[in-house]
């Protein structure tokens, strides 16, 4: 019985480390998803930005004047995620709470040793001491890895983007004046880019396809906000 509990303790140690790595990889994937979502020039697929895209879409469904708890939306979306074939919530619970089961095993080992009357034998002392060492190590390991804190920071980062940054990006507009492309944000800041003749022809074609409004003459065009992504992808 004591040997079985000791082996189980070792298995729990391995599971804690393995599931922690799985959760950290998931966090990294989501953070990369956010970076790709904010960088339209980055090559990506819809599946790689699906997490952030789904949050933005859910957030946009609410009325502009409604009070929306964006953190709840993100946590709700996280609860539906999978790490491989395993639910994210289950994997994270194993990574952060398995240490309590390990303490339970240590207590059981002590009780078994006392019941068997061999608590002072060398083998028993080594196994119980090793189990205690592994459990304490996993306590420190989970503190150092800080999955809960990492998750909270990630949620705060996504929340800040969806609430504060994304609305400003939506308000951007692009102007084409002569041989210059000008991107204007909501605060009036602008970025200019000189265009080649080929690029100007591409932009004119985009303007025709997206019914962009033209003002003053054929050399000055204002594109709709939703056409920015297509335009930048064309020029990249």
Roughly what percent helix?
Answer: 55-70%
Structural class: alpha+beta
C-alpha Rg (nearest Å) = 28 Å
Poorly predicted runs are: 210-226
> How many domains make up the 3D coordinates?
2
Number of strands: 7
Strand order of the largest sheet: 5-4-3-7-6
- Share in β-strands: 5-15%
List keywords for this structure.
2 domains; 236 residues; 7 strands; two-stranded antiparallel sheet; 5-stranded antiparallel beta sheet; elongated; alpha+beta; single chain; 66% helix; 11% strand
Please tell me about this protein's structure:
The chain is 66% helix and 11% strand. The model is unreliable at 210-226 (pLDDT under 50). By secondary structure, it is of the alpha+beta class. The strands form two sheets. Strands 5-4-3-7-6 form a five-stranded antiparallel sheet, covered by helices on one side. The N and C termini lie far apart (66 Å).
Please summarize what this structure is.
The chain is 66% helix and 11% strand. It has 236 residues and is α+β, with helices and mostly antiparallel strands.
Write the topology of this structure:
Blueprint: H1 2-38, H2 50-60, H3 70-79, E1 82-83, E2 86-87, H4 88-116, H5 122-145, H6 147-170, E3 173-177, E4 180-184, E5 190-194, H7 197-209, E6 213-214, E7 220-223, H8 228-235
Helix pairs in contact: 1-2, 1-4, 1-5, 1-6, 2-3, 3-6, 4-5, 7-8
